[in-house]
Amino acid sequence: MLHMIEKAVAENQLVSAFAVVGIIVWLSNQASRYLTKGRVHGSAFAVLGGLALAYWGGVLTGKTKGLADLTMFSGLALMGGAMMRDFCIVATASEVHVNEAKKAGILGFVALFLGTIIPFIVGVAVARAFGYTDPVALTTIGAGAVTYIVGPVTGAAIGASSDVMALSIATGVVKAIMVMIFTPALAGFMRLNNPQSAMVFGGLAGTVSGVSAGLAATDRRLVPYGALVATFHTGLGCLMGPSVLYLAVKAISW
Amino acid sequence: MVIFGTALLAACYLAGIFVGDAFGALIGVKANVGGVGIAMMLLIAAQHFLRERGLLNATSEKGVTFWAMMYIPVVVAMAATQNVLVAAKAGPVALLAAAGSVVLCACVISFINRIIHRAHGGQPWNPDATVEIG
């Protein structure tokens, strides 16, 4: 009997993933309502719960895809993969008020540049403080602090070693998860309560996964504005990392 | 038909990703440059164009809004498939570099948004007053 249920769940991965996520979201809404009287958004609990389950999956299997490495939950990889995520992000554009988005035009660009340069400088400075002196390693780790895609793309372009690449990816993953967790908590401090501020946030915080999950947990209506800008973040980072930023690090390293 | 909305969304998505890839190749970057953002703008433009001509009925729109509503569940699934183990075990370099950039960026965001807030006279955002979509 139990075997048959297991088989039904494992053979219909995507449908099972819908059911599993539905249960997580329902439990999170209950937690939001009864534990915090609605003050903390249900989505924040859901994202945190997802991360906790991902940790548990990682501990159980020792692999890299969190809960999706368990056969029963493999459909989560498809449901939460880049294709579905980007498809749904594009769909949220149907809720964008064009006039609101236009207001933040130039600020969005400024935020994008700052959002690439600031994390890069922090990453390079930390790596330098821990004894890395090779400009290739410094640039790759700095690029990882931008996003976990910019890191390896930059590293591959300038020929970084695989341990530096791994460190660079880890930096980006830690950053994305920190953005997911701390955005709702810091929303008041960051004045994250209107479309313009969400666009500034999207440009500066960068990582699409972090921005989209963080905004979803703060105020769902802000998601498309933040995502619209954040989506250019990885491209800009990949453009600047192996070129301008690498040359800058090379010029000042000694 | 609901599928018309979803197909419109899919067409915008694919066109955006294609343009992003082409743009990346053009400037010599091994990544998609802003593909999703371009797709979002295409969708906004396409919906505006079709609505003005009355070619987009409420049922078709549901084919788009459903996926917009699925956004949070998809993000939860994404969270559940992150490599949290690696993040939790990452050394001090990754931890400090990540925490440092998050804190610094949060401060800059706060700074910029406070300026915007002041420039706009501190009026709160009230989206319900200007709802455009059904």
UniProtKB/TrEMBL annotation, chain A:
Keywords: Membrane, Transmembrane, Transmembrane helix. NCBIfam families: malonate_madM (TIGR00808). One of its GO terms (molecular function) is sodium:malonate symporter activity. Residues 5-252 form the Malonate/sodium symporter MadM subunit N-terminal domain. It comes from Paramagnetospirillum magnetotacticum MS-1. This is Malonate transporter MadM subunit. The keyword Cytoplasm does not apply. The keyword Transmembrane helix applies. The chain crosses the membrane at residues 12-28, 40-58, 70-93, 105-130, 136-160, 172-192, 198-218, 225-249. It comes from the Bacteria. The lineage of its organism: Bacteria, Pseudomonadati, Pseudomonadota, Alphaproteobacteria, Rhodospirillales.
UniProtKB/TrEMBL annotation, chain B:
Signal peptide: none annotated. It comes from the Bacteria. One of its GO terms (cellular component) is membrane. Keywords: Membrane, Transmembrane, Transmembrane helix. The keyword Nucleus does not apply. It holds the Pfam family MadL. The chain crosses the membrane at residues 34-51, 63-81, 93-112. The keyword Transmembrane helix applies. This is Malonate transporter MadL subunit. It comes from Paramagnetospirillum magnetotacticum MS-1.
